[in-house]
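Pasting as-is:
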Amino acid sequence: MTTDAFSSMLKQLDKAAQSLGYSREEYEFLRHPEKELTVSFPVVMDDGSVRVFTGFRVQHNSHRGPYKGGVRFSPSINREEVKALAAWMTWKCAVVNVPYGGAKGGVICDPKELSVGELERLTRRYTVAIMPLIGPDKDIPAPDINTSAREMGWIMDTFSVFKGNTTLGVVTGKPVGLGGSVGRREATGRGVLYTTLEVSKKLGIKPEETSVAIQGYGNVGSVTAKVLAESGFKVVAVSDISGGIFNPEGLDLGSINEFLAENPKSTLKDYAAPNISHITNGEILTLDVDILIPAATGGQITEQNANQIKAKVIVEAANGPTTAEADEILEAREIHVVPDILANAGGVVVSYFEWVQNLQSFFWNEQEVNERLEQIMVRSFANVWSVSKEKGVSMRNAAYMVAIDRVISAAKTRGFNL
């Protein structure tokens, strides 16, 4: 993600707020995070040496409820990126109308260079460092890039040990055996499916006649590919950090997943099969396909490549994959963009379900989770589509308008004197 991610977010915020008729004074508070915490903490490495790591937790807004947002481990993460991600979480929670505000966190590290023991010690020390800010009624972390149910279990355990009682609701995305929700791991990808199906219906696109390229084949991208293929879409290209593979007749996802599972140190550049072409992550964005799904990192679609995109529809599974400048180009070219704060909100919706289940100590089955997720995603898409058509604005602007209006309305209702 580019270092100007927060600037891009502010441009999107300004545009939507002005479309709603709000003065700068009325929404100025949304241009600033409520809290920003930078922490440094030592970790004992396997060889006995000590390294000091830097981490962040940014809490953007809490007018609609406790803060909510993931924790990512990345060598390139920085505070400006975390600020942008926290704000996007505010809008994401508001656009799907779950009672959370936005937050985000992370640690500057490369997990691939760390052993499991080192990762555990790092995760636990980071938890202690941010502990004054988190809690089931304050701020609820979740998995993000390079973190998973395993790390969430460590965070929950560390928090619980210090508090003196098991506190399941302090994080979501936990292992199911520790209070996690069934369907949570697949939730973001499944939410992308539901929004892709809805935009396809609106545009008269038939899944069986539709080609899809997916940049990013981590948890979100791989689940998205699987559920789209099961729904009849033809997934012709996918990519990971090493590059992509392309077959215009459609990929054998089962074969790809089996290869990656059997060769955990391999990447897609190592995969070979008949009629497979190897392409770059840049090339996958400009393939001649019907639907493009960026599901990797932010800042992938820029003013440099936006004019080369051939897809008719872009569904943003990643956070912030399109810069503000590229967005204007895509809008001028009449390319339909289902924005990240709507398209990839399935994860936070099922995180909300997990939190609710933890608070009630009553758990749902996977069918119930998926049905409730579909209802919320379909309803949220319909709300945004309606505003887009009624106001004559892009889907992104419409999604921001829905989200910002809800946050400002909540602030005013609480008596915040705007």
